[in-house]
């Protein structure tokens, strides 16, 4: 509200928020957040004790329903560890969810799917800043992955036993420094080319928006050179 000039101080913001029905503040990393001013607002009579109780009641009701105040022994999840989270069953389910979330815009003339038997004797080039960089494959608010479970496009295709050559062209998504000569060399010798482009958290996250939808840096040039 301060940023939009609706209020001028944290105290005003706390009063306006509580009066409007807001009962929860998300203020990660702030030592002196907005709702820390609620006691002052209460002392000044800007909000009433009954209103404060009305706002807090559903929060604690929800926490109770979630079992936050139950003994740990009553929580069925307390016995789980990473061996369960990273079990083959869970990883296979994650793989299935990922496969079903892909959107194929065009498939002309029936190029996909690539099968191992179809790649025998074929030279496959995998290029682009997202082709073999595990760090850039995860979006904002993603968990910290375990390296042994990360499959980049290059690593996944190598499991097919194909004859693969690789170059990133540019080492990071911003693609400020682009090696055109290396890309042309790798792509020129290939029968099949996979180009892996995008943005990632280096380019856009929450509170870091882009002003356009263009590919970052030299990525469009990389794509055009590969196609040519």
Automatic annotation (TrEMBL):
Gene3D superfamilies in the record: Glycoside hydrolase family 3 C-terminal domain (3.40.50.1700), Glycoside hydrolase, family 3, N-terminal domain (3.20.20.300)
PANTHER family documented for this protein: FIBRONECTIN TYPE III-LIKE DOMAIN-CONTAINING PROTEIN (PTHR42721:SF42), SUGAR HYDROLASE-RELATED (PTHR42721)
Gene Ontology process terms (BP): arabinan catabolic process; xylan catabolic process
Record-level Gene Ontology MF annotations: alpha-L-arabinofuranosidase activity; xylan 1,4-beta-xylosidase activity
Stretches assigned to coiled coil: none
Keywords assigned: Glycosidase, Hydrolase
Name of a matching Pfam family: Glyco_hydro_3_C
Glycoside hydrolase family 3 C-terminal domain mapped to chain residues: 103-226
GN (gene name): Xyl2
Domain of life: Eukaryota
Designated name of the protein: XYL2 arabinofuranosidase
